[in-house]
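re the bet — no i am not wrong, look at it urself. input seq straight from the record:
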Amino acid sequence: MIFKYQNFFIIFLLVCITTNCFSQKLTIKKIDSLCKILEDNDAFVNLGHKKILQLSNDVYINSKKNNYERGQLIALKKIIETDFNTNQLKDADSKIPEAIQLAEKLNDTQKLVSLIDYKAKYLIHLGFYKEAREKLNLALSLSTKISDKDKMYIMRASIFNDIGSVFEELSAENKNNLDSLYYYVDRAYVEAKMISTNNPKRNRLVAQYARVNGASLLYAGRYEDATKYFAEAEKLLLNEKDTRYIVPVYRFLGEVEYKKAHLEKSIDYFQKAIVLAEKSEYYTELVFLYPAIASPYKDLKNFEKSTYYLNLSRKLNEKIELEKKSNVEKVSIENNKEEKKESQLELYILAGLMIVLSIALGLYLRFKLKNKKTVNTFESKQKNIIGDNNADIIEDTDKHPLKNIDAEQIKYLIDLARNNDESFYLKFLEVFPYFNKKLLSISPNLSMSDLEYCALIKLDFNTKEIAQAKDISIRTVESKKYRLRKKLNLPEDIKNINSWFSDF
């Protein structure tokens, strides 16, 4: 057995050495074969996100070494797609400009349109809806130049769906935008239906946009219409190899049944979704599913099951946070190792600079000390003249200096909010610098509009006060609060969102 493994290792080593001796042409041929793996319809289910990312990085590095721009573009697009799938939106956005430049240079319209669409998705996430619409309009215009009809329909469906997302966000402030939302998500569905029936992506995409239509109708309270779309999506996805796509369909069907007070049915759907999500480690869905199934169990007075799933939800969130922290620490350690290897000269220069700075600091402090003595002598003389009349005032101010400053700052923020001042949120972050980071660690999908509403709630604005500040209806604010609860995954037992934010 040992001899067998030794032979295998020797053969593998010889293959590697032989491969390195071949010309650049063979290297590009090998890159092309890896690109085919990356662009396969079931790449994610076959390899998983981590392996896809590793393979994409290898393809990108080797393509760059060989000045093979097509390989670079394919790898970059797959990295961007993977980053979006794993909510690493900022990382994805940082790679889009280079990818767009390559797509334009290679005259690859389909990839160019897709990349512009990804940029628009990121802008929607940040709350820049006007800029997102401009990008989406550009992508829509360019999409007609895609020669492959199926690829054109796929891209147009995605673009229409993203335009719908813009109106979904805007509908929180103006219900008139709901009609536009329904129109554009339906256009996405219609475009997907035009994909040829023999295309392997068709069922998956038609099901996706049917689900989006169903979701928009669900939140509008049109349960029967929503169910028809969800049922169609379920039928299309039953034979899909990647079972992750059907998980959100079952979750939404469970929500419909829960809204209709069919508690046992809702539990059945949630349970189906949980089994598939746990099997594929689909954490982003499990985050929603565990608290979702806890609600009907609670209504059925099955507190044991309800508590069980709420505990699973808590443990999962803790696990996700630990993994994030672990990844950050891992990257930091790797970066430190590289820095130690490559920057010895920089360390020597830095040490020299530190000595110079220390001398300069010593001279500066000596000057300040001398100057302080002069100031203290002057203040002492002034104190003798003025006397101790202000002693009580000074003592009172020293008791709560931070409290007084905070109260003034909060009053200033409340005034800005009530006047719907554009600078409100920026000023808010100056007072609460970690607010953004903490919220986005809970839900990376929060938009800029969501974060601003959260800030108002943090300042203990009630529904009526938010409506007055934003000059919108109370019903719109209630709708926004409901969606925030969903995005933040707040348990049902937290009745008052303001009290939750007060401890946040």
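see?? Residues 1-26, 327-336, 371-405 have pLDDT under 50 and may be disordered. told u. also DSSP finds 25 helices and no strands in the chain. so pay up
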